[in-house]
Amino acid sequence: MYNHKSFTSKVGGLKHNVNVFDLSDNGTEVVKTAPATTHHILLIDRSGSMSGVLDTLIDQVIEITSRLPKTDLLTVAWYSGVDQCRVAVSKAKLSEDLSVTLNDLRRTVGLTCFSTAVEMSVKEITSEVDQNAITLFTDGCPAVPWSESEELNRVVKSIESVGNTLMAFNCIGYGNYYNKQFLNDLSNKTQYGLVFHNSQIDQFLRSYEEILHGAEALIPAKIEISLDPGYIYDVIYVGNSVSTASFDVEGAYVLKHIDREGGKLFIVSETNPRFIDLDGEAYPRTTEKVAQSDKDDLFYAYSHYLYRHGRRMKALDVIVNNVRDKAIADKMINAFTAEEVSEVEEMGRLAISGSQNRHLDGKCPAGYLPAKDAFCIMDLFGLMMNSEDPVYYIPYSKNVESYKRIGRKTEDKDNRFTPVEGEVRAELKEFVWNKEHLNLSIRFDQKGTVKLNAKAAKRVNLPETYETKIYRTHTFIKDGSLNIRQAEFLIPLSLVSTTVPTREGTVRIASPALSTETIDGKEYGRWVWDLSKIPVINRQYVEDIGLDSIYDLVKKSTELEARQKVLGFRIKDLEDSMPSMKKTGTYTALTLDQIQVLEDHGIRKDGVYGGIENVKPSAEESDSYMTRTMTFYLSGFSSFPTVKDYVLMTEKKKNVNKSGQMLIDQDNSVFETVAKNSKNDKELLLALQKDLKSSKEELIKIRHKIGSVKMGKILNNDFFEGLDKDAKGNLVFEDEKITTIAPMVVRTDRTVEYI
Length: 755
Hints:
By secondary structure, the chain is an alpha+beta fold. Among the domains are: about 5-10 and about 35-290, von Willebrand factor, type A domain (Rossmann fold, 3-Layer(aba) Sandwich), CATH 3.40.50.410; about 540-755, no CATH class. It has 18 helices and 33 strands. Strand 1 (about 5-10) and strand 2 form a beta hairpin. The radius of gyration is 31 Å and the shape is globular.
């Protein structure tokens, strides 16, 4: 019989009963045996989105072949689209040189389909070894002609078809555009399946070494557990090198593999079962005391697997109240992105493996609640956008990795643009939030020239080298995840302090500036920041704002959009009446022939180079992933009238709708605050332009607040209470004391993004 003890403890505020079985203490032949032999099956993603990193991945796979345990076998297969999958190496041993074969896999092929690849890989499972393990590597979501749920069902069917012969189905997700829950659902179909997140491609080797280490520690077993019926149990097993957990178990459970040195089995329930039966032996209730070290082993493992299975508040409660680990608690409370969640999971795995990885920042005091306002990227960008002196982003810095585009890139097959030499600086006041997606970008222009056809230029009297510019966008946050990990900034020294940062305070700089310089009479420092060192967002953004506050922000942003529209056409009217005041850089001073030559060379009417032969990959040629979107808008204000319709409304020739009335109100406000105080048209134009600039800056700040709320809600799988449905089925917030203009519509959706 196994050594059996039990204890009670509060978890999540409720009393739980825990039965502990020492599987190292029964004298059976499975304890401390030789390592089992394992057949490792590795599935490599060769879809188009792996372009640029596939070489590095293959280098690491070749390195794995030299680290394989001597008695193990390795199968390497690749996959891309539906039925595009092949076994490159089958059941190879350590002594075999596989580099030539694997080097043939360095080219990307097509799209992404998991199901046909997994169906192929399970056929490679062999009885020549003690156990088989499959590891799926991917950087994206399935792009298949059937639904994602059908794709999941097909993969699960293949996994279940091989039963106990598959010890683990592991997954390694690279980047920000794979579906973490999809991979979790697959790995949870086996007792020892692991899921790893790789933010950098060179992290693959470390992840796979952990898989090899775990497999080496495991041996096949068949520990049959019969449980007092009518109750729900959580079963957690913790060995020296491996662990696993299953939740909501009823009646019976079989532990199919264990650590070769035994380990401990914990059975947790909210009730006190009358009996538990292991391998045919009945174990009655016991009152024998359990060592604190065993309790800690349980609670670290319990929290880790609760967190992995999405039960994050209960996992946090275990960490705060049962083991009181401050470092993990602080990390958990503000983990939102895939990378941050994976960092929590990594801390949990390490804490399970040994006490040296626990309480790295001491113990939580009684009643501890982790800080919800940990300094985050949203705080940092908010400080920089609100700085009295502008902050500059250096988009083409030589001190950081070059910007990597994620979306489908439009390429000009006949690119005539040549950038001018010199540093490009983008003012952070040009930050732009996407209205639906969790995307925060900065837009900047790059000056350059276009070489015109010599004969055409001479014919219409244009210079052969024509000055122009292009617009570029760099996305810092893409669908809620950090897209630019390191960035160079020029920061006014007035914003820099050595104090601990707060939302209202200044930026804390931990390292000296690369250099200092003077810009417009102000002292600046140049820093390269690793943005991945702080969380993207913190929990305070989720919890501290209600629908009434969001309504105020949406109302104000809508009014500012209306004001900008009014200011825009008022400025245009004045410029048209004052040619000397019209902006330069447009076609106003050019002949029709000159305009045609410029357009033939890709230069648009606004003087910006837009390309000549622009080509963008089709959706069918691209990988994709699913992303959640959230939009707020006032009902009846999804768009504003055109200038033509607005003029008709002011002339009472067209009915005035809600959005038209807002334009009229803002037009009146512009007159009262700007126009009537101006002495002449020139002074009026300058005042209108100043008001437009101020309105744009205020709108950017408000959109930053709205975007931060959306990010917190979506990344935390949270939503709003107090919403109703209107006649069209839209979710709306309506309160006669607050929603004075119109109800606010809150719309969420899932959309496909192509990469």
